[in-house]
Amino acid sequence: MKASKHSPRALLCSVLLSIPLFGQAETVNWTNWLTGQISKHPDVMAATEQAAARNQDAEASEQPLYNPELSVGADRTGSDNNFVAGLSQTIDWSDQQGALKDKAKLIRLSAEADLNEAVLAQTSESLFALVEWRAATRAEEIAESQQHRLNALLEQVEQRQQAGDLGSTDAELLFLSLSQQLSELAQAKAAVDRAETQVRERLPDWRPQDGGIPGHIWPALASRVDNDNLLDHPSIAAARARWQVLRSEAEVVSRRATASPTVGLSGGRDGGENLVGLTFSIPLNVRNNYSAETRAANRRALEAEARFQALYRKQQYDLAGARAAWKRYDTQLSRWTELSQGRVQRSADLLEKQWQVGDLSTSEYLQALGQRAESLKTGIELEKQAQLGLIELLSQSGELITPFQQ
Questions:
Q1: Which of 168, 170, 297, 298 has the fewest CB atoms below 10 angstroms from its CB?
Q2: What local confidence, expressed as pLDDT, does residue 375 receive?
Q3: Are strands 273-281 and 69-77 parallel, antiparallel or unpaired?
Q4: Is 101 exposed, middle or buried (0-12, 13-18, 19+ CB in 10 A)?
Q5: pLDDT along the chain (406 residues), means of 10
Q6: CA-to-CA distance for 217 and 19, rounded, in angstroms?
Q7: Please, are residues 185 and 377 in contact by the beta-carbon 8 Å criterion?
Q8: Rg from Cα positions in the chain
Q9: How far apart are the first and last CA of the chain?
């Protein structure tokens, strides 16, 4: 993997792995809009700045380790003016700079992985919020439709009661059903309001008229990743990069423990005579050989490696669980769709006709309408869970976003 030098928006990913020809233009437009919205979120902007700062840290690590030192001195002895000037340079005897350059490369990879991890999290949360909002709006539509139907039914019951076709019990049953529906409608609208605020928090320029995730997006979503490919998952890549950075830091600390000599050259005049001097100095690591620092750095690297292995292992199980859950919901959704086949949509008119001719009592009619509404809500819930499951699967596999490559 090479460190990205592109803009943060280029690091945001295409939501699709493949695009159907019939929806390619619409998909590209919506994907570009989504990535633009995600790039504006404060969490992603903060991660972008953090990545930029770490890239500067990497650049700093690549700079020469020691600067030359200039020394100048002057004095007067009797009538003689004495002076001396010297130049010294510490030598990187153990090639610390080479280890620091290796560390800088890993810092850049770590910064990119952390940014991708932040983008993946924000993309997942944004798509989750859009799915929840869409399901809430559909449930609200069902509640409103149910209330309108009950209101119309109440007028018919009152008319038939006046004509003597129905008794007062029917009107009372309808009143109780309508009262309950008012509460359900209020809850449905409150759920839409909550879902809308969640979407607005994650997608700054989103408006309700923009809708949810377009229908042509879903057929193109698929998961092709298995456990062997999980090392490319942003979270796993970030953990692996942190381990490698600490491992390289341990190497830097080890080389730093080796004494670096300093060589100096000086010249001047003393008592009217020219002076030329050569100096050589080296720290004597006798009282402290810095081995404790080296051992501590190695331990930190081992800790990071263990955490990487633990996260990698956990991710494998999370991926398997997400795939199993999505398959369960997707299977049940397919079964529900097969069973309904438009029957639920047509059943309302059929039930009303049966009630009108007396084949159904008012209580049976109200019960059937309630069951119809529950069936519709079941379909919405199954579709929502299947879509959430697919997003979770793609998030756990790391396929939800794929960095643009050039």
A1: 168
A2: 86
A3: unpaired
A4: middle
A5: 42 38 61 89 94 94 90 81 88 90 92 92 93 94 86 73 65 76 89 94 90 80 74 92 94 89 89 85 87 93 96 94 93 88 71 75 80 88 94 89 40
A6: 8
A7: no
A8: 36
A9: 13
Largest CA distance in the chain: 137
**Residue 111 included in any domain:** yes
271, 276, 282, 287 alpha-carbon torsion, rounded to 10°: -10
pLDDT at 11: 40
Q: How far apart are CA 174 and CA 180, in angstroms?
A: 10
- Beta-bridge partners for 263: 89, 280
The span from the CA of 51 to the CA of 46, in Å, is 9
Q: Please answer whether residues 350 and 344 qualify as being in contact, where contact means their C-beta atoms are separated by less than 8 angstroms.
A: no
Residues in the chain, total: 406
Torsion of CA 353, 358, 364, 369, to 10 degrees: 10
Could you tell me if residue 404 is inside a domain? no
CATH code of 247's domain: 1.20.1600.10
- The range of the structural domain enclosing residue 354 comes to 23-284+303-397
With H, G, I as helix, E, B as strand and everything else as coil, classify residue 400: coil
Residue type, 373: A
List, in sequence order, every residue forming a beta bridge with 74; answer none if it has no partner. Answer: 83
| Strand locations in 183-272 (E) | 262-270
Q: Residue written as tokens 């979503």?
A: 221
CA atoms of 238 and 231, how far apart (whole Å): 10
What pLDDT is attached to residue 21?
35
Residue at token pair 């038939």: 160
The vertex-9 CA angle with 200 and 51, nearest 5°, equals 100
Look up tokens 């979407």; give the residue: 199
Close Cβ partners of 144 (under 8 Å, ≥ 6 residues apart) = 185, 188
